[in-house]
Amino acid sequence: MKPLAEDGRSATEDRVRAALAARAALVTHRDLSHEAPPQGRGWGVRRVRRVAFAALGVAAAVVVVCLLVLPGGSAPAQAPPAGTPGINEPSIPTDPVDPSGADPQVITEP
After folding, report:
1. Is residue 12 over pLDDT 50?
2. Tell me, what DSSP letter sits at residue 10?
3. How far is CA 34 from CA 29, 30, 31, in A?
4. What's the rounded Cα separation, in Å, for the pair 110 and 108?
5. CA atoms lying within 13 Å on the CB side of residue 14
6. CA atoms within 13 A on the CB side of 40
7. What whole-number distance in Å separates Cα of residue 13 and Cα of residue 19?
8. CA 96/CA 107 separation, integer angstroms
9. pLDDT at 54
10. DSSP line for 37-83
């Protein structure tokens, strides 16, 4: 069970607040630095490494998708070479055909 103070805070929290307030009272404007804050490099090693790994991951994903989606292995079949141009005559049947589909009969009497 945690002991509660009058306003709902614990005794440990009260002690921490008192210690922080005492330390803040010791700091004056003379203790603060007059120099400009450090600039550092614009791109750190970690940021460059993260960007490089992200780019490698995207490139690997693109390669996997290309291998799965695109047909692989065989080259596309080439069309046979073109022949000499010419005109095709329609074929004419040698025997006349009866449009009714009946067998032709020879009539000898007029």
Report:
1. yes
2. B
3. 10, 9, 9
4. 7
5. 10
6. 6
7. 10
8. 17
9. 97
10. PP---SS-HHHHHHHHHHHHHHHHHHHHHHHHHS--SSPPPPPPPP-
Residue 5 pLDDT: 46
- Taking the CA atoms of residue 60, residue 65, residue 67 and residue 69 in that order, the dihedral angle to the nearest 10 degrees is -170
SS3 at position 4: strand
What token pair was written down for 60?
């690997």
Residues 33-77 have pLDDT tens digits of 788 877 777 778 888 899 999 999 999 999 999 888 876 656 667
Token match 């490089």: residue? 52
Extract the tokens encoding 43: 């791109």
Distance CA(67)–CA(76), nearest Å, equals: 16
- Encoded amino acid at 56, one letter: L
